Amino acid sequence: MASSSWGHMAEVDTGTDQRQNEEIEAMAAIYGEEWCVIDDCAKIFCIRISDDIDNPKWTLCLQVMLPNEYPGTAPPVYQLNAPWLKGQERTDLSNSLEEIYMQNIGESILYLWVEKIRDVLIQKSQMTEPGPDVKKKTEEEDAECEDDILSPCPPVKALNLGSSENQAGAATRMVEREELPPIDHGVPITDRRSTFQAHLAPVVCLKQVKTVLAKLYENKKIASATHNIYAYRIYCEDKQTFLQDYEDDGETAAGGRLLHLMEVKGYQNSFSG
């Protein structure tokens, strides 16, 4: 019985490996030089996607790692790299990719992901750009109000608060949101001359993420670490979406894996680093 089960498991693994190899070959054939092999053994790949091949206006690099369970029972671990991709745009695109996976569980989805990203870039390039005067004014306003734009927490002045008591209470809550949340520090673990330590904190807006990072970097050991990876997930009730992002800090796909784990576990309003 044990021999039969082991043989069946090996057969499944071989089939999965074959499906992955076939998909990799197809992607390389379709996208040519845009497809790049980062680590063949670890099955980490990158593809450069643009709105227009000849005259690109918007470009994004999609990095993927294919786990052993893909495409059967697990999605690819992915990372979206583009200097312009931030905030809600990143969240919306990530949600679109995850929706494609949920609609095609058990199927190869890299091609669907790439073409979805390309569609998003094409739509972005077709959007009407503001005129010089409007654009200049917008940039000036952005520079003055950067924190308000980045933070999903609404500024107090934008709320219809009513009485002075309500105003005071709302202002207090806003201050609490911007204060440093409690940070839990894990026990350091050393493996093969490398030391790892986890840090967790509850966060409800981007300002708190920045505050947590600033506090952690006050520690000289943390600031001088070779890699400081982190990820966060914040649930925006008004939009019923997640504001989430991660940082690899030179450790390929590490932050993306951490964020994926947080998604699988259903964590929200959390910072992990």
TrEMBL record:
Domain (RWD) spans 22-124
Q: Does Protein transport count among this protein's keywords?
A: no
Q: Where in the cell is it found?
A: Cytoplasm
Q: Which InterPro entries match?
A: Impact, Impact_N, Impact_N_sf, Ribosomal_Su5_D2-typ_SF, RWD_dom, UBQ-conjugating_enzyme/RWD
Identify the GO cellular component terms for this protein: cytoplasm
Biological process according to GO: GCN2-mediated signaling; regulation of translational initiation
UniProt keyword annotation of Thylakoid present: no
Q: Which UniProt keywords apply?
A: Cytoplasm, Repressor, Stress response, Translation regulation
Quote the SUPFAM superfamilies the UniProt record gives: Ribosomal protein S5 domain 2-like, UBC-like
Q: Which family does it belong to?
A: Belongs to the IMPACT family.
What does the record give as the function of this protein?
A: Translational regulator that ensures constant high levels of translation upon a variety of stress conditions, such as amino acid starvation, UV-C irradiation, proteasome inhibitor treatment and glucose deprivation. Plays a role as a negative regulator of the EIF2AK4/GCN2 kinase activity; impairs GCN1-mediated EIF2AK4/GCN2 activation, and hence EIF2AK4/GCN2-mediated eIF-2-alpha phosphorylation and subsequent down-regulation of protein synthesis.
**Subunit structure, interactors included:** Interacts with GCN1; prevents the interaction of GCN1 with EIF2AK4/GCN2 and inhibits EIF2AK4/GCN2 kinase activity. Interaction with RPL39; this interaction occurs in a GCN1-independent manner. Associates with ribosomes; this interaction occurs in a GCN1-independent manner. Associates with actin; this interaction occurs in a GCN1-independent manner.
Q: What is this protein called?
A: Protein IMPACT
Native organism? Phyllostomus discolor
